[in-house]
Design goal:
120 residues; mainly alpha; 3 strands; 48% helix; 12% strand
Length: 120
């Protein structure tokens, strides 16, 4: 069964469709620099995110081929997430987002868990 194509007006829209969302770039950055993670570790890393939102964001990233979800046949089941080869191609985009955010932090924002460049 062929999936219906999503109509977009430009290439930027493709990028935003795949990594748009408040937490998707943060999830990708975490998996890119920290490696394979379990759900609980991702929750711990982003204390402001709800379980439902994290679940939805992970499902969308997996659907778009940017992350890989591996379920181990254990009781209770163990699930790990890692960045896919396609997801790794977003590294320059994520680095540019980090650089831009750091440059424009200003007085309005306070970093509580700096991550850009921390694991490099």
């Amino acid at each position: 069964m062929e999936t219906e194509k999503i109509k977009v007006t430009c290439e930027i829209e493709v990028t935003l469709h795949m990594i748009g969302g408040k937490y998707k770039p943060v999830i990708l950055e975490q998996l890119l620099y920290e490696g394979t993670q379990r759900f609980g570790k991702l929750m711990h890393y982003m204390p402001q995110i709800s379980q439902r939102t994290l679940t939805n964001q992970l499902r969308e990233l997996e659907r778009d081929g940017l992350i890989v979800r591996k379920v181990y046949p254990e009781v209770p089941p163990r699930v790990e997430y890692s960045i896919s080869e396609e997801g790794k191609t977003l590294q320059p985009v994520l680095e540019a987002m980090c650089d831009w955010g750091a440059e424009h932090l200003g007085d309005r924002y306070e970093l509580t868990m700096p991550q850009c460049g921390v694991s490099e």
